[in-house]
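In response to a reviewer's request, we include the raw inputs and outputs for one of the modeled complexes. The two entities were modeled together in a single run.
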Amino acid sequence: MSAGLRGGASIVGVGTAGLGEAPGFTAMDIQALAVRAALDDAGLALHEIDGLFCANMSHTFPALTTLEYLGLAPRWIDGTNVGGSSFLVHALSATMALQAGLCDVALICYGATQRTGAGRMVPAAEQPLYEVPHGPRYPMIAYALAAARHMADYGTTRAQLAEVAVAARRWAALNPDAFERAPLTVEEVLASRMVMEPLTLRDCCLLTDGAGAVILTRPDRARDTAKPGIHLLGGGAASFNRAVSEMPDLTATAAVESGRAAYAMAGLGPADMDLLQLYDAFTINVILFLEDLGFCKKGEGGAFAEAARIGPGGGLPVNTNGGGLSFCHPGMYGIFTLIEATRQLRGEAGERQVAGADTALCHGNGGTLSHQATVILGTDAAL
Amino acid sequence: MTAPPDDPAVALGPDAAFAANVRDGRLWLQHCTACGAYIFYPRVLCPRCGATDLTWLPASGRGTIHSRAVLHRRQTPGSDRPPQHAIVLIDLEEGPRLMSRLPGIAPEDIRIGAPVRARIEIAEAGPVILFDRAETAA
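The model returned the following structure tokens for the whole complex.
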């Protein structure tokens, strides 16, 4: 795997807006507010952006609508949409575009108002032809099937799944921006309404509004921005299937491949990661990704979570913002992994700050366990 | 677009050909004459080896429950929908996996690894492949 992109781009600005509920605002409104916040964070002007990377579930041409709203005329656009992992792919493709000189200031952005707008999780418009007649509910059917198989193969328990939700809530309690901050116990997760067995309501991510923006430049340019750049050290993406019924192994995701590529590019391994941001659309995701990204053996993710290794005060900080389970989840969460990792690596994370963090692994999941993308970020010390 | 087939008997796209078989009571799968793979869902080329020389062969109908999930519906007054809706993935004996249901088995009795047998049900929206509990192989 090429190490050529290692250190090829730096995140110089991040912003969020409309987290939780943004009544009266459109997805494009809150996305623009997030972009404005990221520009202010970076100390850059709007029209310095000349590369645009975006995806969403609400617009047929997200990049075109976005550039029009913002008044941009980007030299380079990438609208790759592989689900909630798209933004981690964008981080990698933005690095390529910056290195190739196709753009100098790259913006990755996303916004959605599924809570106050649609009032429900909006699944993809087109679903697998041979699954639909059986009445699955997307996207959760895929995660429930994966969880059930993981439980059958490895003895993973619903209580272990619940530990993931509890750890996320404990982190969220430290994050003033998180949507759900009230204390949560394993017993409460287990007793919450069964939605798609074996997953209860509290095994499922939130449904919120929210927008995020990330600005990247080449590292030489990052020296002139308002805050020190957070560097892309590695990245990788992989996919074997769209439909869950086509997934080769329900208990092993393509994160094995995306992680391997990211580690190879970074020249780092799991033991070198100071914190993780894993797309937790459902509690089973975190267990699968801890295993597939090499933090424990296959089948041991449940026990790993149960030992409270991933919550505040544990050995391995995971989803320090509270994740999709307790922070926010507007439908495509991936961009928030990059934003939280950047804030942690800058030392701006307040009460939830992980002391002395120099490396962070961000992992995005797209579709119904369909696409996996991993990005490793680091401070100057990790370059 | 795929090249039009020479044989008028197979002048249907793969989805339509599969559906026509099912309507006539046949669960047939595509079989790749080049690599021997059975293929589902229907396609114009073999996703294992890329060959386009595919034939339709009868499936045994035997399979195994690979995983299960049960949707728990919130009950609304006047609704006659059952409160639980079980969905399964079935591994067919020939290799392919598909999503289906086991209407004859209570959701709590559906066991991963249990043997099942396919049947065709003509539903309002069209024929579907469903499964029943199979006698455990002796």
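As requested, we also summarize the result in words. The mean pLDDT of chain A is 96. Chain A has two domains: 10-119+209-229, 137-187+234-382.
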